[in-house]
Amino acid sequence: MPQMGRVAGKVALVTGAGLGLGRASSLLLASEGARLVVSDIDEGLATHTAAEIVRGGGEALALRHDVSKPEDWSAAMAAIEQRFGRLDVLVNNAGIAIARNIEDTSLAEWRRTMAINLDGVFLGCQEGIKLMKKSGGGSIINLSSIDGVIGEADLAAYCASKGGVRTLTKAVAVHCAEQRYGIRCNSIHPGYIWTPQTENYLRDLGTLEQEKAKALSRHPIGFLGEPNDIAYMVLYLASDESKFVTGSEMVVDGGYLAV
Ligand SMILES: NC(=O)c1ccc[n+]([C@@H]2O[C@H](COP(=O)([O-])OP(=O)(O)OC[C@H]3O[C@@H](n4cnc5c(N)ncnc54)[C@H](O)[C@@H]3O)[C@@H](O)[C@H]2O)c1
Fold it and tell me: Which CATH class is domain 11-195+226-250?
């Protein structure tokens, strides 16, 4: 395991770590010295990310973990405690986006979105706090979205879930601060980052190239983000460099929300 790095020796759990932002964040945290627990509903994907970390000289444990299930959280935390005895960083990253407006969204789609995007973060914060308290503190990082701040017509349930993540994060941050747990909690609000989720969402809307061009036009910076643009924010929030940052919403969006 590398001894040097911005998060050297910290134990970090990243959910939805098989693809996209979770994978990139896991690889970057590991390259900066963290010991990783990479979890995903798809065990094969989690194992793949873990293998890449180990090949790079890092330490990683892969777990199958559906963030919407309380029993999966209990099992994940027990496995982490057994293997590492502590938890310093939790990245509540797993999430889904269903391309439906308010009129088209079924109750089942609404509930599925809430179960993964909001129940998942709620359960993660509860379970994370329990283990971090024993470890003497930590950093919880919740993936919200620009859609946790503004509304997007074709993502009704997604917007509601990400808005919930935004203010839940603040409630958790204030509670942990008042209790002097040494636990910080912040949200990240990415613009469009090129990942499987973004590609699938744009395909659902219409012709991929046309939808990509439309998305691009809403980012003043002139390009879409790449996973490491978010991973570097995760790294900052995971490290002690951000020790005075809690309850904050970190926007990383190429200027999307600025206009
Ligand atoms: N990509 C973007 O442009 C963007 C923008 C704003 C916010 N986000 C948020 O960032 C997070 C990651 O997005 P992404 O683009 O990397 O997504 P992605 O679809 O590329 O990857 C998501 C990962 O989560 C896993 N997953 C899905 N359901 C799960 C569950 N119930 N339990 C555990 N794992 C599960 C998937 O298997 C996959 O590996 C999400 O919360 C997303 O809403 C993404």
Answer: alpha beta
